[in-house]
Design brief:
This protein has 508 residues and is α+β, with helices and mostly antiparallel strands. The chain has helices at residues 38-46, 63-67, 87-95, 169-177, 194-199, 206-209, 237-246, 278-293, 331-342, 360-363, 391-407, 424-427, 455-475, 495-499; strands spanning 54-56, 78-83, 97-100, 111-114, 118-125, 141-145, 152-154, 160-164, 181-182, 216-222, 228-232, 252-259, 261-262, 268-275, 301-309, 320-327, 348-355, 382-386, 415-421, 443-448.
Length: 508
């Protein structure tokens, strides 16, 4: 799609689809690859991998764990798992095949042909948090799992770190903190780093250092033909531009060098406030958010969220509004911002004050051991980017959620996420320097239906999501195009909403 590079693979499957495979699974497809079975495929791949790599078949004990994803909604159908130990192993796995591309689909896997006969979709997995509906189209696929590429090596100059494709946010934060360093990451301890980086990457260091992708110095990229490229501002600069914002389309990133920094604050403070009277508190609360973001939001007020959802401690029928914010500073320094919400009469306040940065995720219930990181639920995400909150539209969104959880109790865990960040660090970066298209968005909102899967429930979720996004888009600044953050994408969004309203074949 972009530049000179073909659409081939998604790195870490944060968004995408697979090319449909029409080969009959019962057929005895005999060729140079042998019968079409996981065993025969594994045998063929194994000839090209290093001794430290691993191949797992459905009969192996570890197979279930390796194919388990964060959301049951997007599991797909995997026949074999490859765990490469090196970048060359990834290249060998890919170059055994010849890609056939279908750019009408969101590209998260390439269709490859073993010796031009056995067509198989490939899916590259970092932490397995992709929720796109397109992942369900994968049939008898090969998973390239990057868990053996889970390194974080801090450079001697203290200004950069080499980070592998299999790491999660917890790995990065804890390792860098031991050196007194940080870099931009997500706010979820169990999510990956390189996957989110290729589509953007929001977190509570955004105000200081920009998006995750803004901190990539260089990367090792495996193309569909098995070539390994060193990609940077001076080596394959067009690909370097495209990988940062649309990187899911171009290749597998096995490792990347990131800028790292001294800790911006010695301590942090995290707060959660429960607002249980939505009929009277919703509009004042979002008006208060608008006031703060219009200031603009100071960099120390790093992340500022509202979650709408059922909390049975208060009610099983009326979603509450939970405010959560992280502040880079002491309790005394954060008190000004806490006071801006306490006058709206929250039912409860939880304080985690003057804590080290390494404890911020656990305080926010977002570390690897938190409920949000556990597998076993069926999550979907339907994102939309905004400039400002329209309280009428937000009321409509809240009412849609309330109606859904009351008319269909199986959706009782569903939520709406309203995400505000101090965006100064992101907007300080020249918008033309990367392919990321949404630097003009100030707010990220997502409707997240959570439910036991069924065809009927899938249709209900999609119907509510379409009404939800229509209401919020209608209430946004007039004349703005609908935008959707690609890392949250469901798979039904127009391509322009994900990658920008410009010619994707040209770099402007």
């Amino acid at each position: 799609m972009y530049g000179l590079y073909a659409v081939v693979l998604v790195a870490f499957a944060f968004h995408g689809t697979a090319i449909p495979n029409d080969l009959d699974s019962s057929a005895d497809t005999r060729s140079r690859c042998g019968p079409f079975t996981p065993t025969s495929i594994g045998r063929r791949l194994g000839q090209h991998l290093s001794p430290d790599s691993s191949i797992y078949l459905p009969t192996d004990q570890q197979f279930g764990k390796l194919t388990d994803r964060w959301s049951d909604f997007s599991e797909g159908d995997i026949s074999i798992v490859v765990e490469p130990a090196t970048t060359r192993d990834v290249a060998a796995t890919v170059s055994t095949s010849q890609p056939m591309l279908d750019t009408h689909l969101y590209p998260s896997a390439i269709q490859v042909k073993f010796a031009n006969d056995c067509a198989l979709p490939f899916l590259v997995v970092g932490q397995g948090h992709g929720t796109s509906s397109a992942l369900n189209t994968i049939r008898r696929g090969v998973s390239i799992n990057l868990q053996k590429l889970r390194h974080v090596h801090v450079g001697r100059d203290g200004k950069r770190a080499l980070i592998g494709g299999g790491v999660n946010t917890h790995d990065v934060r804890s390792t860098l903190a031991a050196h007194g360093k940080v870099t931009s990451t997500t706010n979820g301890g169990c999510t990956g780093l390189l996957g989110p980086a290729l589509g953007g990457g929001f977190g509570n260091l955004l105000s200081y250092f920009g998006l995750i992708l803004d901190n990539i110095i260089d990367m090792a990229v495996v193309l569909a033909n098995g070539d390994v490229l060193h990609v940077s501002s001076t080596s394959h600069p067009d690909l370097y531009w495209g990988m940062r914002g649309a990187g899911q389309n171009f290749g597998i990133v096995t490792e990347a060098t990131f800028k790292i920094y001294d800790m911006p604050a010695s301590v942090w403070s995290v707060y959660e406030l429960d607002f249980t009277d939505a009929p009277t508190q919703l509009e004042p609360l979002f008006n208060r958010f608008n006031t703060i973001t219009a200031m603009p939001q100071p960099k120390e007020l790093a992340s500022l969220y509202i979650y709408a959802g059922i909390n049975s401690t208060y009610s099983k029928t009326d979603p509450i509004l939970k405010v959560q914010f992280s502040y880079a500073g002491t309790a005394a320094q954060a008190s000004e911002w806490l006071n801006r919400f306490t006058d709206l009469k929250p039912a409860a306040i939880r304080k985690y004050e003057s804590i080290p940065f390494t404890q911020v995720l656990s305080a926010a219930n977002a570390d690897v051991c938190s409920g949000i990181c556990q597998h076993g639920s069926s999550w979907r995400l339907f994102p939309i980017g905004l400039k400002t909150y329209n309280t009428t539209a937000n009321r409509q969104a809240y009412d849609l959620l309330k109606r859904l959880v009351n008319e269909h109790p199986e959706f009782g865990q569903s939520i709406i996420q309203f995400e505000n960040y101090a965006v100064g660090g992101m907007k300080a970066v020249d918008a033309a320097s990367t392919a990321y298209p949404h630097r003009n968005d100030d707010i990220l909102v997502s409707f997240d239906p959570i439910y036991p899967r069924s065809t009927v429930s899938d249709a209900i979720a999609l119907d509510v999501a379409q009404k939800f996004r229509a209401a919020l888009h209608a209430g946004d600044t007039p004349g703005r195009n609908f935008t959707a953050y690609v890392n949250y994408a469901n798979g039904d969004e127009p391509i322009e909403a994900l990658y920008g309203f410009f010619n994707p074949f040209q770099r402007g």
